[in-house]
Amino acid sequence: xxxxxxxxxxxxxxxxxxxxxxxxxxxxxxxxxxxxxxxxxxxxxxxxxxxxxxxxxxxxxxxxxxxxxxxxxxxxxxxxxxxxxxxxxxxxxxxxxxxxxxxxxxxxxxxxxxxxxxxxxxxxxxxxxxxxxxxxxxxxxxxxxxxxxxxxxxxxxxxxxxxxxxxxxxxxxxxxxxxxxxxxxxxxxxxxxxxxxxxxxxxxxxxxxxxxxxxxxxxxxxxxxxxxxxxxxxxxxxxxxxxxxxxxxxxxxxxxxxxxxxxxxxxxxxxxxxxxxxxxxxxxxxxxxxxxxxxxxxxxxx
Amino acid sequence: xxxxxxxxxxxxxxxxxxxxxxxxxxxxxxxxxxxxxxxxxxxxxxxxxxxxxxxxxxxxxxxxxxxxxxxxxxxxxxxxxxxxxxxxxxxxxxxxxxxxxxxxxxxxxxxxxxxxxxxxxxxxxxxxxxxxxxxxxxxxxxxxxxxxxxxxxxxxxxxxxxxxxxxxxxxxxxxxxxxxxxxxxxxxxxxxxxxxxxxxxxxxxxxxxxxxxxxxxxxxxxxxxxxxxxxxxxxxxxxxxxxxxxxxxxxxxxxxxxxxxxxxxxxxxxxxxxxxxxxxxxxxxxxxxxxxx
Lengths: 302, 293
What we know:
The complex is a heterodimer. Chain A is mainly alpha-helical. Chain A contains 13 helices and no strands. Chain B starts with 13 loop residues before the first helix and ends with a helix. Mean pLDDT of chain B is 87; it is low at 1-5.
């Protein structure tokens, strides 16, 4: 690239000017096409009578009407509400508790922290495999406790239509609560110790100290934890597939598994697309305000 | 956020401390138990597992379940074991991680040091892409992969993982480079260094930590992915997670729990190893993905 003429120099200057944007362009184009273009396409499909293959004639809101009338879908949404609510609440409770306990100058913190967090490195399929067996009454926990002499012990939730959804909560909490602990621990470590010392001088008890001063300061950590957990809950797919396969019956069906089965095994692509759109709207309701608030603030480093 | 920041100034009595340690230990057991159970039972004979105590160490240690899981177990129709799928995963993960990390680095560089009108919007659009439920792209993606002639191939999966990983890799590098002194870039520009030269001479050499974070994040996510693997692969490209699920949930014949456990651990080993070797960076990635935009 050795342009020596005036013209060449001009071209090179232009290229240098445009280069940054040219470098960014392929990634941005990919996102625009593969994310936003695909969203538009799926939204469009949700208004068509596509079944096994996409069709392009519009039929209005029929798919959504069908979707909301389906018992299968309302089960999935109810399950998401139960699962999501418990998952977020329990993970937050465990995460906060562990973070507070770990923050008491614990000597073995360096050993304990990684132990709490490692499940985050595992695939949900691995987690599902482990817990499926652990919870299986014929062979896992129930059987073990019975061999140990507690013969009346029963724990058959995974086979029980009423209780199976809670087994998903158990496994999901196991996987992510350590991560929530890390979020809160980072928050706790960011709190100014002077404030704590001042409150101690004033004679505040530890309980009061946490309830009145420390935990209220963790607001950003609560928000982060909520956003992460909520969007993970809505997207839950792998764990359900691995742990219960949506069963027994449809007892643990969730929107993500519903979408997959309607689109790819029941050949109701229009309805499947509609369910995906609803999922996107749920995630957007959580994420968009959060991202807006995060990005609106003037950014450090320029 | 730094892990070595000052710990709390809250004072606790001796009894309280004992209780705290006890509670922390109980939690450690809770998190370790499933892995321990899988590990222990993967070395047992099937009869011994059926006999009861899942927590007991094996009376008779056998590696047969591991060998079976690795290269004999029936997965789908063929008795290949997990080995070919392990290889599929590696063939998918390596290019996907390299490409998405490289692009993320360049994007982060442009978005912080070569800012232009509307760059925040561009970034916001890329960032939102991190969080979409992938169900919304499954149908069109299947069509596009077919159209490109890479449906069911490893390259198809690489494309998918690069595209949907870009948001995160860009986020990581953008936040890291935002803290990098812009004056250095300006000075280099005055000295006549061009766009790419500044990148690989000035920014890249100091990007070690964030490259590690990004590579680990991408490696873990791509390796652990199930949805895309299940949707867009066939035998020649099926990743480990999909094969493991097929192995575990196949309804034919006796359920060989010990083989399932060995298989699950095999699927977990790469990400666990990364976590053990570089856990610090793994956590940093998690936090960056969660906390700051």
